[in-house]
Specification:
single chain; 6-stranded mixed beta sheet; 6 strands
Protein backbone atom coordinates (compact mmCIF):
# COMPACT_ATOMS: atom_id res chain seq x y z
CA UNK A 1 0.00 0.00 0.00
CA UNK A 2 2.91 2.32 -0.65
CA UNK A 3 1.37 3.33 -3.97
CA UNK A 4 0.52 7.03 -4.51
CA UNK A 5 -2.51 8.08 -2.51
CA UNK A 6 -5.68 9.10 -4.32
CA UNK A 7 -5.12 12.67 -3.11
CA UNK A 8 -1.79 12.81 -4.93
CA UNK A 9 -3.36 11.42 -8.08
CA UNK A 10 -6.22 13.90 -7.96
CA UNK A 11 -3.75 16.75 -7.55
CA UNK A 12 -1.41 15.46 -10.25
CA UNK A 13 -4.14 14.92 -12.82
CA UNK A 14 -5.56 18.38 -12.16
CA UNK A 15 -2.14 20.00 -12.58
CA UNK A 16 -1.66 18.15 -15.85
CA UNK A 17 -5.05 19.31 -17.12
CA UNK A 18 -4.27 22.90 -16.17
CA UNK A 19 -0.87 22.79 -17.87
CA UNK A 20 -2.35 21.39 -21.06
CA UNK A 21 -5.21 23.92 -20.98
CA UNK A 22 -2.56 26.66 -20.75
CA UNK A 23 -0.90 25.24 -23.85
CA UNK A 24 2.35 24.51 -22.03
CA UNK A 25 4.72 21.56 -22.41
CA UNK A 26 6.86 20.21 -19.59
CA UNK A 27 9.90 22.03 -21.00
CA UNK A 28 7.95 25.30 -20.96
CA UNK A 29 7.28 24.82 -17.25
CA UNK A 30 10.99 24.18 -16.67
CA UNK A 31 11.89 27.42 -18.44
CA UNK A 32 9.49 29.51 -16.36
CA UNK A 33 9.81 27.92 -12.90
CA UNK A 34 12.46 26.28 -10.75
CA UNK A 35 10.97 22.84 -11.54
CA UNK A 36 12.65 20.76 -14.20
CA UNK A 37 10.57 18.77 -16.68
CA UNK A 38 11.23 15.44 -15.00
CA UNK A 39 10.11 16.69 -11.59
CA UNK A 40 6.92 18.22 -12.99
CA UNK A 41 6.17 14.94 -14.72
CA UNK A 42 6.65 13.01 -11.48
CA UNK A 43 4.30 15.39 -9.69
CA UNK A 44 1.65 14.97 -12.38
CA UNK A 45 1.91 11.19 -12.25
CA UNK A 46 1.78 11.23 -8.42
CA UNK A 47 5.18 9.62 -7.99
CA UNK A 48 6.23 12.49 -5.73
CA UNK A 49 4.49 15.21 -3.78
CA UNK A 50 4.83 18.93 -4.40
CA UNK A 51 6.12 21.60 -2.04
CA UNK A 52 3.81 24.56 -1.26
CA UNK A 53 6.08 27.11 -2.97
CA UNK A 54 6.41 24.94 -6.09
CA UNK A 55 2.64 24.45 -6.22
CA UNK A 56 2.08 28.18 -5.91
CA UNK A 57 4.50 28.77 -8.80
CA UNK A 58 2.67 26.25 -10.97
CA UNK A 59 -0.75 27.72 -10.20
CA UNK A 60 0.56 31.23 -10.96
CA UNK A 61 2.04 30.00 -14.23
CA UNK A 62 -1.23 28.32 -15.22
CA UNK A 63 -3.17 31.49 -14.44
CA UNK A 64 -5.40 30.08 -11.72
CA UNK A 65 -7.07 33.03 -9.98
CA UNK A 66 -9.83 31.12 -8.19
CA UNK A 67 -8.80 31.36 -4.54
CA UNK A 68 -11.11 28.54 -3.44
CA UNK A 69 -9.64 26.16 -5.97
CA UNK A 70 -6.09 27.23 -5.13
CA UNK A 71 -6.80 26.49 -1.47
CA UNK A 72 -8.31 23.13 -2.40
CA UNK A 73 -5.25 22.12 -4.40
CA UNK A 74 -2.92 23.19 -1.61
CA UNK A 75 -5.04 21.08 0.74
CA UNK A 76 -4.58 18.06 -1.50
CA UNK A 77 -0.83 18.67 -1.55
CA UNK A 78 -0.68 18.99 2.24
CA UNK A 79 -2.68 15.80 2.82
CA UNK A 80 -1.14 13.85 -0.06
CA UNK A 81 0.69 11.46 2.22
CA UNK A 82 -2.02 11.16 4.87
CA UNK A 83 -3.01 7.60 5.61
CA UNK A 84 -6.36 6.57 7.03
CA UNK A 85 -7.80 3.88 9.31
CA UNK A 86 -8.23 1.55 6.34
CA UNK A 87 -4.47 1.08 6.11
CA UNK A 88 -4.89 -1.34 9.01
CA UNK A 89 -6.61 -3.64 6.50
CA UNK A 90 -4.00 -3.28 3.76
CA UNK A 91 -3.61 -7.07 3.47
CA UNK A 92 -7.33 -7.53 2.80
CA UNK A 93 -8.27 -4.62 0.54
CA UNK A 94 -7.00 -3.66 -2.89
CA UNK A 95 -5.40 -0.27 -3.65
CA UNK A 96 -8.48 0.60 -5.72
CA UNK A 97 -10.76 -0.09 -2.74
CA UNK A 98 -8.49 1.97 -0.49
CA UNK A 99 -8.87 4.81 -3.00
CA UNK A 100 -12.66 4.64 -2.76
CA UNK A 101 -12.57 4.79 1.05
CA UNK A 102 -10.18 7.73 0.89
CA UNK A 103 -12.50 9.55 -1.51
CA UNK A 104 -15.49 8.92 0.74
CA UNK A 105 -13.55 10.23 3.73
CA UNK A 106 -12.76 13.51 1.94
CA UNK A 107 -16.09 13.94 0.14
CA UNK A 108 -18.91 16.37 0.82
CA UNK A 109 -21.49 14.40 -1.11
CA UNK A 110 -21.92 11.14 -2.99
CA UNK A 111 -24.52 10.11 -5.55
CA UNK A 112 -24.80 6.39 -6.17
CA UNK A 113 -26.73 4.31 -8.70
CA UNK A 114 -26.83 0.57 -8.09
CA UNK A 115 -28.52 -2.07 -10.22
CA UNK A 116 -28.16 -5.34 -8.34
CA UNK A 117 -26.92 -4.49 -4.83
CA UNK A 118 -27.72 -2.16 -1.96
CA UNK A 119 -24.94 0.50 -1.83
CA UNK A 120 -22.14 -0.42 0.57
CA UNK A 121 -22.68 2.63 2.79
CA UNK A 122 -26.24 1.45 3.47
CA UNK A 123 -25.62 -2.26 4.06
CA UNK A 124 -26.13 -4.24 7.25
CA UNK A 125 -23.23 -6.43 8.33
CA UNK A 126 -25.17 -9.61 7.48
CA UNK A 127 -26.07 -8.38 4.01
CA UNK A 128 -22.47 -7.25 3.47
CA UNK A 129 -21.23 -10.72 4.41
CA UNK A 130 -23.64 -12.38 1.98
CA UNK A 131 -22.59 -10.16 -0.92
CA UNK A 132 -18.88 -10.42 -0.15
CA UNK A 133 -19.14 -14.21 0.05
CA UNK A 134 -20.87 -14.29 -3.32
CA UNK A 135 -18.53 -11.90 -5.12
CA UNK A 136 -15.20 -13.11 -3.68
CA UNK A 137 -16.09 -16.78 -4.26
CA UNK A 138 -12.97 -18.49 -2.89
CA UNK A 139 -11.71 -15.94 -0.34
CA UNK A 140 -10.71 -17.43 3.04
CA UNK A 141 -13.05 -16.63 5.91
CA UNK A 142 -10.59 -14.33 7.69
CA UNK A 143 -10.41 -12.11 4.60
CA UNK A 144 -14.21 -12.09 4.32
CA UNK A 145 -14.39 -11.07 7.98
CA UNK A 146 -11.96 -8.23 7.36
CA UNK A 147 -13.90 -7.02 4.32
CA UNK A 148 -17.13 -7.01 6.32
CA UNK A 149 -15.43 -4.95 9.05
CA UNK A 150 -14.17 -2.49 6.45
CA UNK A 151 -17.58 -2.10 4.84
CA UNK A 152 -19.22 -1.40 8.18
CA UNK A 153 -16.44 0.98 9.21
CA UNK A 154 -16.87 2.95 5.96
CA UNK A 155 -20.36 3.88 7.10
CA UNK A 156 -18.96 6.22 9.75
CA UNK A 157 -19.00 8.95 7.06
CA UNK A 158 -22.77 9.04 7.56
CA UNK A 159 -22.49 9.69 11.31
CA UNK A 160 -19.48 12.01 11.55
CA UNK A 161 -20.02 15.61 12.81
CA UNK A 162 -20.37 16.89 9.22
CA UNK A 163 -21.86 13.81 7.58
CA UNK A 164 -21.56 12.83 3.96
CA UNK A 165 -24.62 13.85 1.96
CA UNK A 166 -25.58 10.55 0.34
CA UNK A 167 -28.14 10.16 -2.45
CA UNK A 168 -28.78 6.58 -3.55
CA UNK A 169 -30.85 5.41 -6.48
CA UNK A 170 -31.38 1.68 -6.13
CA UNK A 171 -32.93 -0.47 -8.84
CA UNK A 172 -35.98 -2.38 -7.63
CA UNK A 173 -34.23 -5.64 -8.55
CA UNK A 174 -31.75 -5.01 -5.71
CA UNK A 175 -34.59 -5.19 -3.18
CA UNK A 176 -35.38 -8.81 -3.95
CA UNK A 177 -34.00 -11.65 -1.75
CA UNK A 178 -31.73 -13.16 -4.36
CA UNK A 179 -28.49 -12.19 -2.64
CA UNK A 180 -29.27 -13.05 0.97
CA UNK A 181 -31.82 -15.10 2.99
CA UNK A 182 -35.23 -13.53 3.59
CA UNK A 183 -34.55 -12.46 7.19
CA UNK A 184 -31.29 -10.81 6.18
CA UNK A 185 -33.13 -8.98 3.40
CA UNK A 186 -35.90 -7.93 5.80
CA UNK A 187 -33.32 -6.41 8.14
CA UNK A 188 -31.55 -4.79 5.21
CA UNK A 189 -34.72 -3.21 3.86
CA UNK A 190 -35.61 -1.95 7.33
CA UNK A 191 -32.18 -0.33 7.50
CA UNK A 192 -32.94 1.50 4.25
CA UNK A 193 -36.21 2.74 5.74
CA UNK A 194 -34.42 3.92 8.89
CA UNK A 195 -31.54 5.61 7.06
CA UNK A 196 -33.90 7.42 4.70
CA UNK A 197 -35.18 9.32 7.77
CA UNK A 198 -31.79 11.03 8.15
CA UNK A 199 -31.72 14.55 6.66
CA UNK A 200 -28.51 13.87 4.76
CA UNK A 201 -29.56 10.51 3.24
CA UNK A 202 -31.86 10.35 0.21
CA UNK A 203 -33.03 7.02 -1.19
CA UNK A 204 -35.02 6.49 -4.38
CA UNK A 205 -36.04 3.25 -6.06
CA UNK A 206 -35.90 2.88 -9.84
CA UNK A 207 -38.88 0.65 -10.62
CA UNK A 208 -38.73 -2.43 -12.80
CA UNK A 209 -41.08 -0.81 -15.31
CA UNK A 210 -39.05 2.39 -15.67
CA UNK A 211 -38.58 3.56 -19.27
CA UNK A 212 -35.16 3.16 -20.95
CA UNK A 213 -32.54 5.14 -19.04
CA UNK A 214 -28.76 5.78 -18.95
CA UNK A 215 -28.39 3.42 -15.99
CA UNK A 216 -28.69 0.52 -18.40
CA UNK A 217 -24.94 1.02 -18.95
CA UNK A 218 -24.19 -0.04 -15.37
CA UNK A 219 -23.78 1.10 -11.77
CA UNK A 220 -21.66 4.11 -10.83
CA UNK A 221 -21.04 6.61 -8.04
CA UNK A 222 -20.27 10.32 -8.24
CA UNK A 223 -18.06 11.62 -5.43
CA UNK A 224 -18.20 15.37 -4.80
CA UNK A 225 -15.85 17.52 -2.75
CA UNK A 226 -16.40 20.69 -0.76
CA UNK A 227 -13.89 22.80 -2.64
CA UNK A 228 -14.90 22.74 -6.31
CA UNK A 229 -16.80 20.56 -8.77
CA UNK A 230 -13.70 20.47 -10.96
CA UNK A 231 -12.24 17.88 -8.57
CA UNK A 232 -15.25 15.53 -8.54
CA UNK A 233 -14.62 11.86 -9.38
CA UNK A 234 -16.74 9.04 -10.81
CA UNK A 235 -16.21 5.52 -9.46
CA UNK A 236 -17.11 2.55 -11.69
CA UNK A 237 -16.47 -0.90 -10.25
CA UNK A 238 -16.01 -4.28 -11.93
CA UNK A 239 -15.37 -7.76 -10.57
CA UNK A 240 -11.58 -7.39 -10.38
CA UNK A 241 -10.87 -3.67 -10.57
CA UNK A 242 -12.27 -0.16 -10.39
CA UNK A 243 -12.16 2.77 -12.79
CA UNK A 244 -11.85 6.36 -11.58
CA UNK A 245 -13.03 8.98 -14.07
CA UNK A 246 -11.75 12.50 -13.43
CA UNK A 247 -12.01 14.36 -16.74
CA UNK A 248 -14.55 17.15 -16.12
CA UNK A 249 -16.46 16.51 -19.36
CA UNK A 250 -16.89 12.83 -18.55
CA UNK A 251 -17.82 13.54 -14.94
CA UNK A 252 -20.43 15.98 -16.24
CA UNK A 253 -21.91 13.23 -18.44
CA UNK A 254 -22.32 10.96 -15.43
CA UNK A 255 -23.87 13.81 -13.46
CA UNK A 256 -26.40 14.34 -16.25
CA UNK A 257 -27.10 10.60 -16.30
CA UNK A 258 -27.76 10.64 -12.57
CA UNK A 259 -30.24 13.49 -13.00
CA UNK A 260 -32.13 11.46 -15.60
CA UNK A 261 -32.16 8.47 -13.28
CA UNK A 262 -33.41 10.68 -10.44
CA UNK A 263 -36.28 11.86 -12.64
CA UNK A 264 -37.15 8.29 -13.68
CA UNK A 265 -37.03 6.93 -10.11
CA UNK A 266 -39.97 6.92 -7.72
CA UNK A 267 -40.37 9.95 -5.43
CA UNK A 268 -38.98 9.55 -1.91
CA UNK A 269 -42.30 8.69 -0.24
CA UNK A 270 -43.24 6.18 -2.94
CA UNK A 271 -39.76 4.66 -2.75
CA UNK A 272 -40.06 4.21 1.02
CA UNK A 273 -43.49 2.67 0.56
CA UNK A 274 -42.19 0.18 -2.03
CA UNK A 275 -39.27 -0.78 0.23
CA UNK A 276 -41.66 -1.32 3.15
CA UNK A 277 -44.09 -3.39 1.08
CA UNK A 278 -41.25 -5.49 -0.27
CA UNK A 279 -39.95 -6.08 3.26
CA UNK A 280 -43.40 -7.07 4.52
CA UNK A 281 -43.83 -9.53 1.64
CA UNK A 282 -40.77 -11.52 2.68
CA UNK A 283 -41.40 -14.60 4.76
Amino acid sequence: MSDPTVRKRRLGSELRRMREAAGLKLDDVAERTSLNAAKTSRIETARIGVKPDDLTALLDLYGLDDEAKRAALHGLAKDGGKRGWWQTYRDAISPAYADLISLEADARNMRSYQITLIPGLLQTAAYARATIDAINMTSPQDRVNALVEVRVARQSVLTRPEPLEFWAIVHEAALRPRIAPSQVMRDQLQRLIDLAELPHVSIQVLPLDAPPHPGLAGSFALVGFPETADLDVVHVESLTSALYIEEPAEVSSYSAAFERLRAAALPFADSADLIARTKDSLT
